[in-house]
From TrEMBL:
Descriptive protein name: Phosphatase PAP2 family protein
Any Pfam family the entry gives: PAP2
SUPFAM superfamilies: Acid phosphatase/Vanadium-dependent haloperoxidase
Keywords annotated in UniProt: Membrane, Transmembrane, Transmembrane helix
Segments forming domain Phosphatidic acid phosphatase type 2/haloperoxidase: 88-200
PANTHER family, alphabetized: AT30094P, SPHINGOSINE-1-PHOSPHATE PHOSPHOHYDROLASE
Segments passing through the bilayer: 7-28, 64-81, 88-105, 125-147, 159-179, 185-206
Keyword Transmembrane: yes
Length: 214
């Protein structure tokens, strides 16, 4: 890995971490509450039966079991297509680490969910959003791994577009359904962004110095 790429990945990991720490301070001191409420109130003006069905479907895709099933299928696909055991290991580490971090921080901060009417039933704490973290890490690592093997500009564009849309759509669905504050979603993106770039940084570092057997 060249020095520029090494520093770039390091920078991309540090910035989300610092941003997450700052946002967490504002969340815990309720400085984000006013804008959170304003955003939720506005989003609720967009409520429509068809939109609600779509948002529920997107939210379902971010549930635990759908994410597990999608992850297993992607792992099998990655190994079948590319025979890269190191990439399979990276995928698993990113996924499990994201889940563990989400639970750790949720039970550390213990932020209650919004008091607005919930369009789906949810329990547990709110910050950071578990669905949003799962979406960011899943589709983020998918982008990284498949980008390495897709050579065409069109293929890469479609890959990035699809994964970006899924990340943003699942996060938005959680706010629309009334189960998360917008800051929960933003915090989830920042924390999972830090974790994703950290693991990729370590992966690239190890690959250069001690290549993993393929």
């Amino acid at each position: 890995m060249n020095v520029k790429l090494f520093l770039k990945l390091l920078f991309l990991g540090v910035v989300p971490l610092i941003s997450f720490i700052v946002l967490t301070y504002f969340v815990m001191t309720e400085k984000t509450l006013r804008i959170d409420v304003k955003v939720i109130t506005y989003v609720r003006t967009l409520e429509h039966p068809i939109v609600t069905k779509g948002m529920k479907a997107l939210s379902f895709v971010g549930n635990t079991w759908p994410v597990i099933i999608i992850s297993i299928l992607l792992l099998l696909l990655i190994y079948k297509l590319y025979r890269k055991r190191d990439e399979v290991i990276l995928f698993i580490i990113v996924s499990l680490g994201s889940t563990g971090m989400n639970q750790l921080f949720k039970y550390s901060f213990k932020r209650e969910r919004p008091l607005f009417e919930q369009l789906v039933m949810e329990s547990g704490y709110s910050y950071p959003s578990g669905h949003s973290m799962a979406a960011f890490t899943l589709y983020g690592i998918v982008t990284f791994l498949f980008w390495r093997h897709i050579k065409s500009a069109l293929g890469r564009t479609l890959l990035v577009t699809f994964c970006t849309v899924m990340i943003l759509a699942i996060g938005t669905s959680r706010v629309y359904l009334g189960v998360h504050f917008p800051s929960d979603v933003v915090g989830a993106y920042l924390l999972s962004g830090f974790w994703l770039f950290l693991t990729i940084w370590v992966y690239q570092y190890i690959k250069e110095r001690q290549p993993i057997e393929k």
